[in-house]
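Something for you to look into today, if you have time. Just paste the record in under my message, thanks.
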Amino acid sequence: MKGICEGLSRMRWKLSRTVLRGGVTGNGYSLLDSGKAPYYTTTKDASPFSFAGIWESWRAPDGTTIETCAILTTSANSLMALIHDRMPVILQQSEFARWLDPAYKDILHLQNFYHPFPLELMTSWPVAKTVNSPANDLEECIRPLEPSLFE
């Protein structure tokens, strides 16, 4: 599930009351281009990073508690735009503590996080369509089919 950052400003009242910020840590992600071809994207040094996320706990009509979350997206940087017009908000290490700080609630300042990750730190390459199924937890899911787009 993805949340588009531009829409968060319309949720200003809700963000300040019930939605909490979090992060999803990983070392890469897959994304489909307009022709449905998958690409794997990571940092050039393969170091872990965190996606900016939001989560909420709410009560369903039947009384059960539901936990929901979303990874925020933003416009693509110029290199990722070759694949897709959106990309996840990737937090730099220097931004992570401030993103998680519950005292930091000013929506205008939070929007400073909604920028594309620096393209000079990224690399991406086409991968097999096996990556499209969560049942496939295989190394081949991230094995390059062709040379990287961003070398």
Summary: The two ends are 30 Å apart (CA to CA). The longest strand covers residues 49-59. The helical segments are 5-8, 12-17, 93-100, 107-110. The chain is about 15% helix and 35% strand.
